[in-house]
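Typical record was shown:
=====
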Amino acid sequence: MNSESKPADLQGRLARLERMSNRQLVGEMLQFVRPVRYTAAMACLLVGLAVFLEIFGVDLTRVIINTLSHLAYPEKKASSPGAVRLHAAGGTIFNSTGLGAVESLLVLLAITTILLAVTNLLRSLANTKLSMDMVYFMRSQAYDRLQHLGFGFHDRHSTGQIINRALSDLHNIRFFMNLSLVSSAEIIGYVIGYNLLVAAINPWMGLAALAPIPFWLLYIRYFGRKMQPIQKSLMDTGDQMVSIYSEAVAGVHVVKAFATENMEIKKYQIKTDQLFDQTMQTVGMWAAFVPTIRGIATAANLLLFFIGGIMAVHGILFAGDIFVFGIAMGAVLSRLQQINQISNQYQTAIVSSRRFFEIVYAEPTVEDIPGAPELPPGKGEVEFRHVTFGYKPENPVLRDISFRVPAGSMVAVVGPTGAGKTTLMQLLARFYDPQHGSIWIDGADIRRTSLASVRHSVGVVFQETFLFSDTVAANIRYAHPDAPMELVRHAAQLAQADEFIAQLPEGYNTILGERGTTLSGGQKQRIAIARAILADPRILILDDALAAIDPGTESLIRSSLRELLRNRTLFVIAHRLSTVKSADQVLVLENGFVTQRGTHQELLAESGHYRDIARIQLLGFDSSLVEKPAVEVRS
C-alpha cells in the first residue's frame, strides 16, 4: 500500500478520538513508547535498583544507630536483647553484635553508597536517551504523517496550528510519557519499598504511613476535571498566536505596503492579553492545589511521628527506628509531591494528545486501493467522465464535467474567477478525488492506480510559486536530486531562466531567500517551470504560471513548450489571449460547468464568455472591433 494510504483502523480511531476518555488517551499515547520500550525498561530497571540501594542504605544506617545505642545504653533493650536485625524489604539478612558488626556495616554502607552513585549516573544517561529517542520517533511520525496528508487537511488547519501541534503538543506528550514512566516507577518504588521497611519495623506504623494516599488520589482526580478545560483554552489561544505571528512574518510586504503595523501589533496584543488571563487562571488553580497536597503530606508526617514518639517512649522502638521513620516519610512524601508535576503535565498532555492525534490519525484526502498498479505507459491522454466535485460535497464546485484530450495536445482552461479552473486541474493531479465520475489517464482510472505513479506523471506549476531556501539548482532538481547539471541547465533554458540565473552572484549555486523572496515574481515562476520540466511528466499543468512573466518572455516560453509537447500533454490556465489562442483546445468554465469548448477561432465565432474576454483584450489594439459584428473578431 502506498505511504499515503492509512491503516485499516485509522478512520475508526479518528472518529473515536473526540469520544475517548482520558484513560483511553493515555493508552493511545503509550504507542510512542513501543519504539523505545527496551530503553524504557532499562531506565525503569535502573530506577528500581537505585530505590533498592537507597532503602538498603537507610536500613543499614538504622541498624548502625540501634547497635551503637544498645552498646551505649545496654539497659535500654528491645524485645531481642543483644541482637541487631537488618531488614530489607521485610526480611532478615543477618544477625551480628558489637563494634565489629558496626565496622562491617559501615564498610557495607560505603559500598552501597558507591553503587548508588554509579546507578544514579547510569539512570540519568538512560533517562536522557529515553527522552531523546522518544522525541526522535514522535517527530518522525508527525512529520511523515504531515507529508502524506492531502490538501484537504491543510485546507482545514492553518500553518500556525500545524506547527504548534507538531512541536509544542508533541513536546507536552513526550515530556508526560517520559516523566510518567520514570517518575511513576520511582514513586511506586519508594512508596512500596519504604512502607515495607516501616511495616517490617512495626506493622502499625506501616498502616499509618499509607493514610495520606487515598486523600491525594481523590483530590488529584477532582483537580484534573477542573484543569483540563482551562488547558485546552490556553492551547487554542497559543495556536492563534502562532498563526498571527507566522502570517505577519510571511506577509511582511503587505503589512509594510499598507502601513498596518499598529493594527497587527494590536491584533497580537489582544491574543497575548487573552493568553495572560488564561495563564493566570491556571496559576490560581495551582495556587490552591500545591498547598492542599502539601497539607495532607504534613498532617500524615506529624501523625507518624506522634505515633512513633509514643512507641519510643514505651520502649517499643529504637532511636534508629525513629530515624528511619523520618527518612522514610521524607522520601515518600517528597516523591508523592512529584505527583503535582505529573498531574500538571498529565492535564496538559491530555489536551495536547487530542490535538496531536488529529494530525497522526488524520485521514488522507485521497488514498490508494490495496495493491494498486502503476499508471500504464502512455503519452498523456486525458479523459474526464461526468466529474462532479465539491470541497463540501453538498456544495459542488464542478458539475458533470466531461471532455477528452488526445495525447500531446495543448489545452487552455479559461473562465471567470471562482469558476473552478484550478480545482479541475487539482483533480487531474489527484490532490482530491471527485464525489462522482472518474478521470482517466492513458486508459486507466487514476483512482485505481498508485498515487505515486499519478503524481510522477502529472507535473504542476502552481499559481503561487513556492521556492525552498536552497540553491537555484537544488530548487530546479527538486524532483530529481541526482539530475546532472546539463539537464538542469537545459530545463532552465526551456523555461527562459538560464540567462537571469547566470547573472546571479553565484549562478546556479546562489542561495535563494525564504520562499524565493530575492527574486522577482516572473523569475520565480520561470524557475518553477524549469523544476516541472526537469521532473519530465507526461502531463504538465501551468496554473496561471505565466501571469507574472512579460509578453516577450512568455512568447519564448510558449515556443519552448511546443518542443516539450511532442511527447506530453499541456494544460494551461490562463487569462491572456496570447497564451490561449495557440491551444489545440479551449475549455471555458463558468459556475462549475463547461459552457464552451473548441479552438480559439471556433469560440470567437460563438457568443459567450470567450468572445467577451477576447473583445475586451483586443479592443485596445483595434478600436474598429466595436463597429464590427462580434463574429468578425480576429486575433
About this structure: Residues 382-598 form a domain with the Rossmann fold fold (CATH 3.40.50.300). The chain has two domains: 10-360, 382-598. The radius of gyration is 36 Å.
